[in-house]
Amino acid sequence: MARPRILVVGAGFAGVECVRRLERRLQPGEAEISLVTPFSYQLYLPLLPQVAAGVLTPQSVAVSLRRSAKHRTRIIPGGAIGVDPKAKICVIRKITGETIDQPYDYIVLAPGSVTRTFDIPGLLDHARGMKTLAEAAYIRDHVISQLDLADASDDEDERASRLRFVVVGGGYAGTETAACLQRITQTALKRYPRLDPRQIKWHLIDIAPKLMPELGDKLGKAALEILQKRGIEVSLGVSVAEAGVDKVTFTDGRVLPCRTLIWTAGVAASPLVGTLDAETERGRLLVTPEMTVPDLDGVFALGDAAAVPDLAKGEGAFCPPTAQHAMRQGPKLADNIVAALRNQPLKPYVHKDLGLVVDLGGHDAVSKPLGIELRGLPAQAVARGYHWSALRTNVAKTRVLTNWMLNAVAGDDFVRTGFQAQKPATLKDFEYTDAYMTPEQVRAHTASLTVRG
Question: 255 has which bridge partners?
Fold first, then answer.
């Protein structure tokens, strides 16, 4: 009898934790496990702003998928671009561009999220995101290159546009990105004596009326004060009306010279969700507390792409798309798959939120662990302690700790690697959101397989 085939889509927090639990709980001959991911690492996304700032090396936050002691999962290097739940086939585009069809008995959908964008003129062509490792590395190179080019230029208008940086999004990603990168540009001034410190300007804007409202009024205000004290101009209730090569127009009418627009204004579930033609909640797959997709046999979903009921908060609430929940949903979903294989009852996911941490670089941070509001060094210790403990391997923990210590002692370096230096990279260049099929295309594709078969 053929072994049941379990296909996990996505190697983020949710997908990797699910695979690890499956490898531990299933006997070697009990099921066949496959993982679809374009990269052979798990990205620790919350630390990306520190990679962009050069505090951490890219390798520090990219944890190898092949370090598991019980590694027996087949890794398919590519991305899922369509799922036919009726035929139980997942269409995968490999990193070579080749399309393959992967049959399954159980599928775990953890494709994560993509940067949420809007129909703003010039946005997709001139903005950079902070969602992938490549984007973080590129932004670091880009910011340093602006300092180099401004230092070499005698044109005051060019200098003004190169030394003005705009970050859109007042959530955790945007706030940490603005804080960490502003800190490195200020530190760089002693290495660029020709630059006027008054010309380096950072702007953080958000359409929301408050900065990081999830932190509460007190800590949100504390974070705002830290940013403003550093010289970052924070504008709330404002967004981008138009993005150009060397200027940005805000919705309040301001036109600023600017060659660096970093877009972190929220995320949306992976477009893979739309290929199933299933019920959604604000773009995320609507699932049961056991993380099954109703009416679709053998389909489970979790993480950023799934609206998982938050039983700890009560009826009508859904788990936010955070690493904290994804890391815990993964093992629970794996347990439910094992239960399904062994004809046992499935159990619901329940987790009480442990709080939030925001690292603003240097000695600055705000945190709210277990509802306790902290700022300054205590908050920094909690933030970094939480991130350090959440890293999956001892190798990753050692690398991150070493990087933190080295940066604290030796300071920042201002080295451009030169990757992709000749090609301006934008949002659409990194996330490949145009690769997905429509439900009709998926059905037509699988139907043609049946005909050929």
Answer: 249
Of 341, 346, 306, 338, whose CA–CA distance to 110 is shortest? Answer: 306
Helix/strand/coil for 58: helix
Report the alpha-carbon distance of residue 227 to residue 448 in Å, rounded: 57
Q: Is 356 in a helix, a strand, or coil?
A: strand
Q: Which DSSP string do the residues of 205-246 spell out, in sequence order?
A: EESSSSSSGGG-HHHHHHHHHHHHHHT-EEEES--EEEE-SS
Amino acid at 116: R
Token pair in block for residue 377:
């060094």
Q: Whose structure tokens read 């932190």?
A: 215
Residue 90 near residue 107, CB atoms below 8 Å: yes
State pLDDT tens for residues 61-81.
998 888 765 668 999 999 999
Q: Which of 351, 349, 434, 363 is nearest to 404 (CA)?
A: 363
For residue 29, how far is the Cα from the chain centroid?
Answer: 34
- Count of Cβ atoms closer than 10 Å to residue 240 Cβ: 23
At 174-214, the pLDDT tens digits run 999 999 999 999 988 888 988 988 899 999 999 999 998 88
273-295 core/surface letters (b: 16 or more CB in 10 A; e: else) = bbbbbbebeebbbbbeebbbbee
Spatial neighbors of 316 by CB under 8 A, at least 6 apart, are none
Q: Which of 41, 32, 34 shows the shortest CA–CA distance to 12?
A: 41
Distance, first Cα to last Cα, the chain: 22
